[in-house]
Amino acid sequence: MEGYIQQRKTEMLQLIEKLVNIDSGSYVKKGIDEIGRILQKKYEEIGFVVEVKTEAKYGNHLVIRHEHSLHPKIILVAHMDTVFPEGTVKKRPFQMKGSRAYGPGVVDMKSSLVELLYAMKALVHCGSNACENVQIILNGDEEIGSPSSRELIEEQSMGKEYALIMEPARKDGSLVTARRGGGRYKLIIKGKAAHSGIEPEKGRSAIEELAYKIIQLHNLTNHEQGISVNVGIISGGSSVNTISDNAVAHIDIRITEKEQAQELEKKIKRICANTEVRGTEIQLEGAISRPPMEYNEQTEKLLHIIQEVGEEIGLHVHNTATGGGGDASFTSATGVPTVDGLGPVGGNAHSKEEYIEIDTLTERTILLAKTIERLSR
């Protein structure tokens, strides 16, 4: 198996280049669907059946399993969308410099899509029945919180024994065994406009009300408990000499434990239920929508299996926690032991300097294929 994968390093890089050079930001549906069609053909060529879940607004999702698969125990999840807007590829297409490859989405996570495909190709080539033990979800909206694919992922997770999520490994090669959960809120405040010089007493400042709310919301942050509330974007007002009749805040929420969500939501709603500035009105939209991926005994057991496989191929596998969200939260919340970060090693995701370490592409593909084999025994 190792030889098969190592001999296809150039082939894998060529497919990564092809995928990277397709704009597939979360709202570039045509690009996501093009990537889906390319991968659908590749999987069908090696005996897999691909069901396309058509979406009107977002990219389509693919549900993939081997034609002889009956009751697969392993779910694998990878996403086809990126954070980059249409036109990014034209400005900075795929390129290789030394030991690294660069390009929009190269690490998050187009290289993972190729790794996953070639792990399946290797299992098929070697005649391993393990290829029949996987259910693969390729979704098209992970970067915006998986609004249309969350239900699909949770549904397909039911009855599974293991979940392997294909986000990239960390810069030091670590797998991810815990992620913070979270959500987004939008706070809309309406006031009453008035000239700030002639008749300010007639105005009701939405910006002033928002200032009170920002302080109260930020006071909910508790770093020791892993809770953070951040008002990241604000806007409001029409001119410097006008009492503002409108203000808007966008709020990011992060939690570490599932039980924190309900109490934190109560506190946010309580803050926004009343106004400090008489005559202003508040509208709150949003929710804590992504549960945390918590490190537990089941996760630890799965991690140890992957580490044992790593040792067999000369790869020392470590683990870490991250504050970022991901689809691993959904599989973990359904009770399936979940490990994330099984993609190649890289870094600087979501930036112009995004890269993968080229040499880790084949070693991580070998690790993935052999892990699937071990879990299928």
TrEMBL record:
- Which keywords, in A-to-Z order, does the entry hold? Carboxypeptidase, Hydrolase, Metal-binding, Protease
The active site lies at D81, E142
Among Gene3D superfamilies, the record links this protein to: 3.30.70.360, Zn peptidases (3.40.630.10)
Residue ranges constituting the Peptidase M20 dimerisation domain according to the UniProt record: 177-277
One term of GO molecular function: metal ion binding
What InterPro entries would the database entry show?
Bact_exopeptidase_dim_dom (IPR036264), Pept_M20_glutamate_carboxypep (IPR017150), Peptidase_M20 (IPR002933), Peptidase_M20_dimer (IPR011650), Peptidase_M20A (IPR050072)
What name goes with this protein?
Answer: Carboxypeptidase
The source organism is: Cytobacillus kochii
Q: What is the lineage of its organism?
A: Bacteria, Bacillati, Bacillota, Bacilli, Bacillales
